[in-house]
Design goal:
The complex is a heterodimer of chains A (500) and B (422). Chain A has 26 helices and four strands. Chain A has helices at residues 8-11, 22-32, 38-47, 49-56, 68-75, 77-86, 89-118, 121-134, 141-144, 147-160, 165-173, 176-181, 195-205, 213-222, 258-266, 270-284, 291-303, 309-317, 335-345, 354-364, 386-398, 410-421, 435-438, 442-453, 460-471, 477-493; strands spanning 226-229, 234-237, 247-249, 252-254. In chain A, strands 1-2 form a two-stranded antiparallel ribbon. In chain A, strands 3-4 form a two-stranded antiparallel ribbon. In chain A, helix 3 (38-47) crosses helix 4, helix 16 packs across helix 17 (291-303) and helix 24 (442-453) packs across helix 25. Chain A is flat, with a radius of gyration of 25 Å. Chain B is 36% helix and 13% strand. In chain B, helix 9 runs antiparallel to helix 10 (231-255). The longest helix of chain B has 25 residues, at 231-255. Chain B is globular, with a radius of gyration of 23 Å. Chain B starts with a helix and ends in an 11-residue tail after the last helix. The chains are: A mainly alpha (500), B alpha/beta (422). Chains A and B meet through helix 7, helix 20, helix 21, helix 22 and helix 25 of A and helix 7, strand 7, helix 9 and helix 10 of B.
Chain lengths: 500, 422
């Protein structure tokens, strides 16, 4: 599935203005964000592609603000550390246990708050971009175990996500979560730990095979002395642990600091093609593009784009290649995109109850802040097997099933009431919310649902079946409403809806 | 209704499969990825159904069942001290021995206890108990330590272990089935490898609803490009596999004639379905059924009485049905709940989240009676009981003694086994 009709030299040129149409806009919105809401499509067509890219990847994107529970947890950290120091051994264990419970609850809350934030159409593209960066600069709560650090790591990605790539890498090298996750805390002059230096080269900047083992050993010395204090969630440089001696990295010799080693890595030509490779994997296709395409974009990013991430995002999503027919509707949505897509497409609010949100994500194979390993999620076709597809289908069903509030646990009822007082009360689809659609005749209805929900049109037999089913509802309003609901559920469970 | 919806499209048997393929009924479109059980059986004779396989039914009491009012220590003055309004009077409980009795709603289970088919494991929990519904359910379902995180469930790991190296490991029929769960596949089933599991879709996906959706979805394979490597084609394949199972399950259940009068409620209906699926000879080894609503912070007495009656009557009907179908020797049922409740009742005539609690194990092969030791109730106000049997000991027993699997590999350590089987 390569658009070989577009040679590598011209593939990344901007899409011709004449090719910017509703279908192209839907493709862009579904890939850069979660769905293609009709209002967003209309606006994008009116604005044109360049202005739309400016809007999706703005100079100053909205950042995800810290949830109250997280702020509260963070504010209590110093006093917790103090109590821990003063405690007798048995009391100490009890304190640590309680702290772990609070950390878990805070992380679950962080997950739900982030989903609520990312579900807003104006936040979708950048929230997804930060998720993309977090799939490169991977950390996991399972090792870090500190929600403020996890939040801060994502905040670092958010604040540096559209600036120069070297600045992002340097900021990440100071991220407390990363320092714990890749053992920088253990990296000292007398006993260097190579974990961070290796992943920096292999997974963040260059890719496998673009460095020698000697480069890693020497680079690791430059990152000695990077420290964090978990109770305070900060970075500090322990000069006494730092190896200030001469290092030779990529053939250059000097008393390099960590930042200088990162600059040396970006000095390698391979750094240009690495991020384009990751972009293709995360946003475009399960089948990797041939190297010349990556090199062509990489070279332009280095020279013209000055390694600026905003430049790269806009060039990638605005290119002729990105809009090529081969890449339309042939990419499997991640669980997060499937979930947030349902929320947007159905006009719902994220249910503030962990087991209605976090459990389905887990069953579909994606727990936020807990990627399987340092390589992040595999993505694409790996998202779907019999169990995860069943989980997707039962999530779609659940969003059409009123929540029986009598059976909720007490803490869940509190969350529901709190959300409701803030005006977030659309947790499941009601017939009233479908009234506009219900007024349409079957044929127009199928067309409209297919257009708004699906990236690829249904096959003729599937379309005919849906049409006949809707028409079979006759004039009885109850029967019509029932069939409308089932039609939408069916579309959301269909193979076509899993694609973007 | 259009004719193409009344014509069965998906095959449920090899004969149908071959006939439809021969007719070129669009099935050619996905014959390349036809369900494994159909393809395998066209290549070789299908493995014979294991008639004597053992089956485990797991019943989740979601919300945290109050153990103290389930298994009542009616001679313990501390019990009545801690439960001034909720305490059940000695003359109302159903006695099991000189000091312990079942909640008055559990008459049917009481009968099974005296028939020797019901074991009650007392005071089951784990070290460093967590009182969050979410987290404690996770600990029980993944069988992890309180401070560890496992990404797979204990039954998921059992399936990983049981299917390793088996030639028919990708056979199509579900190895694990869940019913009536609120939130899709239970964490208990999450596994490293992909196993055929199946869920009766929750909520509005009642039988008629999911039947309608299934019939519509069957059409996605018609007209699909025949030789296609696209993602859409891969998704169609996976979906068709699932639909074949659904259809098979649907037809099994509509043909099933139970030999017991099940109460009319969703929980009993789920158990009736489990009995039907077991009777059909599916290779499914584990079933998971949820009964929800045990989070009784307020006015516990009536709520718990209703829930325990639902549990007790449902399980008794299920057991009677199994006996009548001569399946009782094959099936063991166990309950679990994410935690018990606080021994001291609260100011709202309810109880708050606690720690250990008893669980039930039911079956013809089960060694009935009381197992383990009861908790000490010499507790200050709002203090919790300390567990005496680790829940992973119950799992280890089920794995080793009932499912014939190496528990240490699956549970990540050795746990004492209990004499739950004769």
């Amino acid at each position: 599935m390569t658009p070989l009709s577009l040679p590598p030299e011209t593939a990344w040129q901007p899409l011709a203005a004449g090719d910017w149409n509703a279908e192209a806009a839907r493709h862009l919105l579904r890939r850069a964000g979660w769905t293609a809401q009709p209002a967003e499509v209309a606006r994008s067509l009116q604005d044109g592609l360049p202005a739309t890219l400016d809007r999706l990847f703005p100079a100053e994107p909205d950042l995800f603000p810290p949830p109250a529970l997280l702020t509260h947890f963070e504010a209590a950290l110093p006093s917790y550390a103090q109590r821990l120091r003063a405690a007798a051994p048995e009391e100490r264990r009890q304190l640590q246990r309680e702290e772990r419970e609070r950390a878990q609850a805070t992380l679950v809350n962080l997950t739900i708050r982030w989903l609520q934030f990312a579900a807003q159409p104006e936040h979708a593209a950048y929230a997804k971009w930060v998720l993309f960066l977090s799939d490169i600069y991977v950390v996991s709560f399972q090792k870090v175990y500190n929600p403020p650090m996890i939040y801060r790591h994502f905040d670092i990605l958010g604040r540096n996500g559209l600036g120069p790539a070297p600045a992002l890498t340097k900021a990440v090298s100071r991220s407390p979560a990363m320092i714990l996750y890749l053992d920088l805390n253990q990296n000292q002059a007398k006993a260097p730990n190579e974990n961070f230096a290796r992943e920096m080269m292999e997974l963040f900047v260059l890719g496998e095979g673009q460095y020698t083992e000697a480069d890693i050993k020497e680079a690791a010395r430059a990152f000695t002395g990077y420290r964090t204090r978990p109770a305070f969630d900060d970075f500090h440089f322990a000069a006494g642990q730092h190896d200030a001696g001469l290092k030779t990295v990529f053939g250059h010799t000097g008393n390099f600091t960590g930042d200088e080693v990162i600059d040396l890595a970006y000095g390698r030509p391979a750094a240009g093609a690495f991020l384009p490779h990751e972009l293709v994997k995360f946003y475009l296709s399960d089948t990797m593009l041939p190297a010349p395409y990556l090199e062509s974009l990489g070279a332009a990013w280095r020279t013209e784009g000055g390694y600026n991430l905003r430049w790269l995002a806009q060039r990638f999503f605005g290119s002729r290649l990105f809009f090529a027919p081969a890449f339309r509707a042939d990419f499997i949505k991640s669980p997060v995109q499937y979930y947030l897509g349902l929320i947007q497409d159905l006009g719902l609010d994220v249910t503030p109850i962990p087991r209605f949100v976090v459990n389905p994500l887990r069953q579909m194979g994606q727990v936020l802040y807990q990627p399987p390993n340092v390589r992040g999620w595999l993505g694409g076709r790996n998202w779907v097997n019999s169990a995860t597809l069943a989980a997707r289908r039962s999530l779609a069903e659940a969003l059409f099933t009123p929540i029986d509030e009598d059976t909720l646990n007490a803490d869940e009822q509190i969350e529901i009431v709190a959300a409701r007082t803030q005006g977030h009360d659309r947790f499941t689809v009601t017939d009233a919310s479908l009234a506009t659609l219900a007024a349409l005749p079957p044929s127009a209805l199928v067309d409209q649902l297919s257009r708004t929900l699906l990236a690829a049109p249904p096959t003729p037999a599937f379309r005919a079946a849906l049409h006949d089913y809707l028409a079979g509802g006759g004039a009885d309003p109850a029967s019509r409403a029932h069939r409308l609901r089932r039609t939408i559920v069916t579309l959301l469970e269909s193979p076509e809806y899993q694609l973007c | 209704m259009a004719s193409n919806l009344t014509t069965p499209f998906l095959p449920t048997t090899r004969r149908e499969f071959l006939r439809q393929t021969g007719r070129g009924l669009g099935l050619l479109a996905f014959s390349r990825f036809a369900p494994a059980f159909l393809v395998n059986s066209t290549l070789a004779s299908a493995p014979a159904a294991e008639k004597d396989r053992s089956i485990l039914v797991i019943v989740q009491l979601a919300g945290g069942n109050d153990g103290l009012n389930t298994l009542v220590p009616f001679e313990d003055a501390n019990y009545y001290r801690l439960r001034p309004t909720l305490g059940l009077a000695k003359n109302t409980v159903l006695p099991l021995d000189a000091t312990l009795g079942l909640h008055p709603s559990c008459a049917a289970l009481h009968g099974l206890f005296h028939d020797g088919q019901l074991a009650i494991v007392q005071n089951v929990g784990y070290p460093n108990p967590n009182r969050s519904h979410f987290r404690s359910s996770e600990i029980w379902e993944t069988a992890s330590g309180s401070n560890d995180f496992a990404t797979t469930g204990w039954i998921g790991r059992y399936l990983d272990n049981a299917c390793a190296g088996r030639p028919d490991a990708d056979a199509h029929d579900p190895l694990a089935v869940h019913l009536n769960t609120l939130n899709g596949t239970p964490e208990t089933f999450l596994s490293q490898r992909d196993h055929p599991t199946f869920g009766m879709l929750a909520g509005s996906g009642g039988r008629k609803d999911s039947e309608e959706t299934r019939r519509l979805l069957e059409q996605v394979a018609v007209d699909a490009p025949a030789d296609d490597t696209s993602e859409a084609s891969y998704l169609r394949h996976t979906l068709m596999d699932a639909l074949v199972t659904e259809k098979k399950v649907q037809s099994v259940l509509s043909d099933y004639r139970p030999s017991a009068n099940y109460p009319v409620n969703p929980f009993a209906a789920s158990l009736r379905s489990v009995a039907g699926l077991i009777a059909s000879g599916l290779p499914t080894r584990v079933y998971f059924v949820t009964l929800n609503g045990f989070d009784t912070h307020v006015n516990q007495a009536t709520q718990q009485a209703n829930l325990l009656k639902t549990l007790s009557d449902g399980l008794a009907a299920f057991q009677k049905d199994l006996v009548a179908h001569r399946l009782a020797d094959q099936v063991t049922t166990m309950t679990f709940s994410e935690f018990g409740r606080r021994p001291s009742e609260n100011e709202s005539h309810g109880t708050d989240h606690g720690t250990a609690a008893p669980l039930f194990v039911l079956g013809a092969q089960v060694k009935g009676g009381l197992h383990g030791t009861p908790p000490s109730l010499a507790l200050a106000r709002n203090e919790d009981v300390t567990y005496s049997t680790d829940f992973r000991s119950v799992y280890a027993t089920m794995l080793e003694r009932w499912l014939d699997a190496p528990s240490a590999d699956i549970l990540g350590g050795k746990f004492d086994r209990l004499p739950l089987f004769a």
